[in-house]
Write a structure and sequence with these properties.
Elements: E1 3-6, H1 9-20, E2 28-32, H2 39-49, E3 64-69, E4 78-84, H3 91-94, E5 107-112, E6 125-131, E7 138-141
Parallel strand pairs: 2-5, 2-6, 4-5
Antiparallel strand pairs: 1-7, 3-4, 6-7
Helix pairs in contact: 1-2
The protein binds adenosine-5'-triphosphate and magnesium ion.
Length: 142
């Protein structure tokens, strides 16, 4: 297990850039941890590494944002699907988005608040964020 100590927004952004180097098309990542623990900042770092041009913002109300990034080993483009399932309370509500249709060999899926889909996506890898100590300190585990 890797443990990263972050003492700033920038540290978490850079941790996202480093983590992105471990990712390949087809991967599904769940980002767990309380409100404000740095999940979206980390996603911004991942997207930076993959040269995403669009603004990366939390899709809290629309559930999923899609970006285009250089996710393939030869830097050819694919999709980055960024989910925020905070508002989803049940599997029935999830029925409004077909999560499986986003998982493919031409995409990477990044899912904030993934608890509701964890058991239906067995390939999911988890990155956990915790607040600790002072106001700006976070620990990131993966
Ligand atoms: N070490 C740190 N790492 C990341 N963010 C930090 C850190 N210290 C302070 N912050 C601030 O904390 C906030 C983290 O917000 P972010 O949107 O990434 O959280 P989140 O985990 O996605 O929350 P939510 O569950 O609401 O989506 C930002 O305002 C950021 O500037
Ligand atoms: Mg967020």
């Amino acid at each position: 297990m890797t443990k990263v100590e972050s003492n700033s927004h920038q540290d978490t952004f850079e941790a996202g850039i480093e983590y992105a180097k471990l990712l390949s098309p087809g991967n599904v990542v769940g980002l767990t941890g309380e409100l404000g623990s740095g999940k979206t900042v980390f996603v911004k770092g991942i997207c930076k590494y993959f040269n995403v041009d669009e603004d990366v913002i939390s899709p809290t109300f629309i559930l999923v944002n899609q970006y285009t990034g250089t996710i393939h080993p030869d830097k050819s483009p694919g999709e980055i699907n960024h989910f925020d399932l905070y508002r989803i309370q049940s599997k029935e509500e999830l029925g409004t988005i077909d999560i499986f249709s986003y998982v493919s060999q031409n995409s990477i899926c990044l899912i904030e608040w993934p608890e509701i889909v964890m058991e239906i996506l067995p390939q999911i890898r988890i990155v956990n964020f915790t607040h600790s100590g002072n106001e700006n300190r976070r620990y990131i585990y993966y």
